[in-house]
Amino acid sequence: SVTWNSLLAAYAQTGHLHKAESLLDSMPGHLRDAVTTTIMVNAYTQAGKIQESRRIYTSCHNKDDFTSSAMIHAYAQHGHLHEAKQIFDTSPHHDVVSWNSMLGAYTKNGHFHEAFLLFQKIPTKDVVSWNLMIVTYSQTGDFASAIRFFRAMDLDGVHPDNVTFLAVIEACGSQADLLLGRAIHSEVSHPDILLVNALIGMYSKCSSLEAAREIFVSWPCKDVVLWTSLVSSYAENGRGQESLHLFQSMQLDGINPDQVTFIAILSKCAQAGLLHAAHTFFSCIPDHGLVPALDHYVCLADALGRSGWIEQASELLDLMPYEPD
RNA sequence: ACUCUGGUUUUGUCU
Questions:
Q1: Helix, coil or strand: residue A307
Q2: d(CA A170, C1' B9) / Å
């Protein structure tokens, strides 16, 4: 059973759903257990096939906490809150992942009050329970609550991880709270690249470009996302020339910009009133094998408009090969 | 002691 499931999981995790299905078909019935069901429910969820998840789940009698949580998650991903809750309510016992899955079902679908009520009922909250609340508050702009829950988590004796830190660091950036951002940064012990990226964004929003740059430099393996953050940080702080220069350095480092790189940079240029830099960045989009997208035109028009070139902005929107919306 | 057959939370994105 373990052997079959291992292979099944390997197929499922690498996105080979068809191979997983045929393996399941050739798998002796008496070897199919709750693990088998959970793997398949999850595989179908990842492929967006909720009906298949449901079919496997309901037709199978081997279920445990893991299977139920996987199915709650499956329903939640597709907005089927009622079905998710039904599974949650009908299971006799909940482990913390089961609670968290139901909590995530509420937060993902915007049912924040229900989420809050459920959160309070979780007997033993773990770091994921807290993260779900903190991330949700941070993403919905309630930064004060994010920080409040971050403190409460500590009082509850649960240690923050990088997911927690990322969410509260983002909250600090959004509030331009440099002191708190620094304080929380000092609590970080093992940052990963995601957190490093958030720290760069936070320091940039707090106008501490030098701190942002230091963090960037100290991270050994920069990817396109990290470079994009740094270049747009300079643009965000009105440093057009340096952002153009860094953009060159990025390519010397072997990193190719993509569509998002240009959207991120151009939008910061527009906000900071860097018309010249915006124009230069826009002009070199084709040099990288990319076609300027609607978003790029909108950003450039925005930059023109904010610099007082209203007519040129609307002219650009008229001439671009897209329909404005 | 930790050690992976399965479930829950987090990266760059303008208007």
A1: coil
A2: 15
Which DSSP string corresponds to A31-75? G--HHHHHHHHHHHHHTT-HHHHHHHHHH-----HHHHHHHHHHH
Contacts 24+ apart (CB under 8 A), A247-251: A247/A281
Residues 6+ apart with CB under 8 A from A313: A301, A302, A304, A305
Q: How many Å does it take to go from CA A69 to C1' B7?
A: 5
Nucleotides of strand B within 7 Å of the protein's CB atoms: 5-15
Considering only CA atoms, give the Rg of chain A.
24
- Mean pLDDT of the A235-246 span: 96
- pLDDT, tens digit, 9 for 90 and up, residues A75-112: 999 999 999 999 999 988 899 999 999 999 999 999 99
Among left, alpha and beta (phi > 0; psi -120 to 50; other), residue A238 is left
- Separation of alpha carbons A265 and A282, rounded Å: 10
Find the nucleotide nearest A71 (Cα to C1′). Answer: B7
- Look up the ipTM and state it: 0.81
